[in-house]
Write a structure and sequence with these properties.
Arc Repressor Mutant, subunit A, 2 strands
């Protein structure tokens, strides 16, 4: 598991250092994907990174992703850094990739049950 309950409690109280910022960024990725999924918007890794970075790409603007809460939320990171954090969350089992059912199948990212549990733990600790 990426973060224990103790790690989350420490983050909630002392998360301003570089490591805390990275941990918060990984939560941002999970929360953004979760919210996009609730709006029935499904994206792959590159579009997710562009969205979180604040890209003005045609795909972002056409789909009005620039009007959503998490747009530009990781603008201090490079696309490469966001992709690396996303890959890490995939490796650890907090995210999964599923090929879309369409005439042009492409891999889309979803939060796993393990990722949902991690977000729920974070919400509980925030209330403390």
């Amino acid at each position: 598991m990426l973060f224990s309950e103790k790690d989350l409690q420490l983050l909630a109280h002392h998360g301003d250092g570089e490591m805390g910022k990275r941990v918060k960024a990984t939560f941002t990725i999970l929360e953004a994907i979760q919210e996009l999924d609730m709006k029935e918007i499904h994206v792959g890794k590159t579009t997710l990174a562009d969205f979180l970075r604040g890209s003005q790409s045609k795909r972002i603007l056409q789909n009005r992703l620039d009007s959503l809460k998490w747009y530009k939320s990781l603008q201090e990171y490079t696309i490469k850094e966001i992709l690396a954090m996303t890959s890490y969350l995939l490796q650890e089992g907090y995210l999964t990739v599923i090929d879309a059912d369409s005439t042009f199948p492409r891999p889309l990212i979803y939060v796993t049950d393990q990722g949902e549990k991690l977000l729920e733990e974070k919400r509980k600790i925030k209330q403390i």
